[in-house]
Structures are given as C-alpha cells and as structure tokens.
Specification:
Distance between the termini: 96 Å
Number of strands: 9
Radius of gyration: 29 Å
Number of helices: 9
Length: 278
C-alpha cells in the first residue's frame, strides 16, 4: 500500500515538473526570448572577432632575408601575423602552408595590399637558413615573411602581442599559434586557429573582407570631406529659413532645405575646432 502511494506521488511530481518545463518553454517561445539563446549574429569574418579597437603593437624586427620590417611602415596594408618555430612539428607547418595557399588565392592586386608575417618564437633555432628551408617545404617562400632576432629583441614583441613563446616553454610544439588579421588601419579584426577555423579559403575571405571594409570607410571619409569643402565654399545653409521651410537662393545656386541639413551636419562634423579658431 505504502509503495503504491509513493509511486503515485513520485509520478505526480515528475508530471508537474514536466508540465512546468513545457509551460516555461512555451512562454519563452511566445515572448521571443528563445531567440537570444543562440547568441549574437555572426559577423562578417569567419575567424573569431576580438574586442573592437585593439591595434597592432609597434615593433621593428629583422626579416630572415636581411631587411628590417617595421609595423608602422605597413599601415595601409592588411597585415597577417602569426608566431612560428621552424622546429615545430604540429601546428606551425600547417599554419605556414595555409597562409601560403591563402596568399595564392588572392589576386595579384590584392596581394600587393597584404603583408603576411611570421614572428619567431624560438630565436636559438630560427636562423635565416632554417627559416628558408622551412618556408620552402611549406610552399610559402616569397609569400610569408619570417621575422627573427635575439631573445632580447623578441621578448618585448611577444609581451606586446600577449603570446607564449616556445623559448619560454622549452618545447617547440607548445606555444601560441594563431593567425591574426589586422585591417589597414592597424586594428585587429579576426583570429583564426588550427584546426578550428584556419583554412586557406577562410583566411583569404577574411583578408578580402578587411580590404573591402577599409575601402568603404575611405570612400565615406572622402565623401564627407568633399561635402564639407563644398559647404564651406557655398554657405547657403546659413541663410535657411526654418519657419517657412524656404531657403534664400541668392547664394545657394538653387539648393534646398535637404542640402542645408546635410551641410549643417557637415559643419557639426568639423567639431569645435573651427569655433576654437574663432
């Protein structure tokens, strides 16, 4: 008797719990709250996107080919940065090969606007000779530059990029190994990892997105500057009559209230600089 009562009570508890779950799910679905469980919508990049506004640190390192590479001299280009060890046998060969293939997927004009850099994480073994052989084996020779130097020169760069180097772990296969995409203004926009999302196609896609977005931003800046210059030459908007909706046409060459509004916005865009000059 007691057993049957216990089983009945247990069945009621389970039934009520299930009914409560179904009711909550129904209410969330009706309210639209379930849409938020899927997370934010995907961005334009196929790699993971870092917090906005992080810029590439400045550095000056020697290429295995003998020239000096400075980050500030690469402004205006999309820059790929990765961290490799020529003795690494796990991720490094894959990363170098993927970058080389991604560069080949780009058109010649696109490649001129991209710089692909590998920064050594083991200065004792990454010599010009070992680097050349490594890049040749991975079909990345001439497509991926490899920056080397003494540990004293490299440690500040590792620290500024917040990476762990093989020289610090004592193991060629244990170190930070991602590919970071920096837009032409030096802003970090995407990160790709082996084997999660780093493929030649994904990397080429993110490079093209960075190139396109920078071009759009430059076009908007040029358009805004041209509009501001034109408004400066023809300050018709200062003669606008807000109550009548009419604009005096003695100096505006026929422009109307819509153009006046745009020029007022352009004038505000100049900020307080002009006011301070006055």
């Amino acid at each position: 008797m007691r057993r049957s009562v216990f089983v009945s009570l247990l069945g009621c508890v389970v039934s009520l719990s299930l009914a409560a779950v179904l009711v909550v799910h129904f209410l969330l679905d009706r309210s639209g709250a379930s849409r938020f469980a899927t997370g934010p919508p995907p961005g334009p990049y196929r790699g993971s996107e870092p917090p906005t506004g992080i810029r590439a640190p400045q550095f000056s390192l020697k290429s295995y080919r003998g020239s000096v590479v400075e980050m500030r001299s690469l402004r205006g280009k999309v820059v790929l940065v990765t961290f490799l060890d020529t003795k690494c046998r796990t991720k490094c060969p894959l990363i170098a090969a993927d970058i080389g293939e991604a560069m080949r997927l780009l058109s010649p004009s696109e490649r001129l606007r991209v710089a692909a850099l590998a920064i050594s994480v083991e200065p004792r073994t990454d010599t010009p000779r070992s680097v050349r052989a490594f890049l040749k084996r991975r079909h990345a020779l001439g497509l991926l530059d490899f920056l080397i130097g003494s540990r004293r020169r490299l440690e500040p760069v590792w620290r500024d990029f917040y990476i762990l180097a093989a020289a610090q772990t004592g193991n060629a296969d244990i170190h930070s190994a991602d590919v970071r995409v920096f837009a032409r203004g030096g802003v970090w926009v995407s990160t790709l990892h082996v084997p999660v999302d780093l493929t030649p196609a994904n990397l080429a896609h993110d490079v093209r997105v960075a190139l396109a977005r920078e071009t759009e931003d430059s076009d908007r800046v040029r358009s805004r500057r041209a509009r501001m210059d034109w408004c400066e030459e023809a300050p018709f908007w200062r003669l606008a009559l807000p109550f009548s909706g009419q604009t005096k046409r003695s100096h505006n060459r026929g422009a109307g209230p819509a153009q006046a509004g745009r020029c007022q916005g352009a004038d505000r865009g100049r900020g307080g600089a002009s006011r301070r000059r006055r």
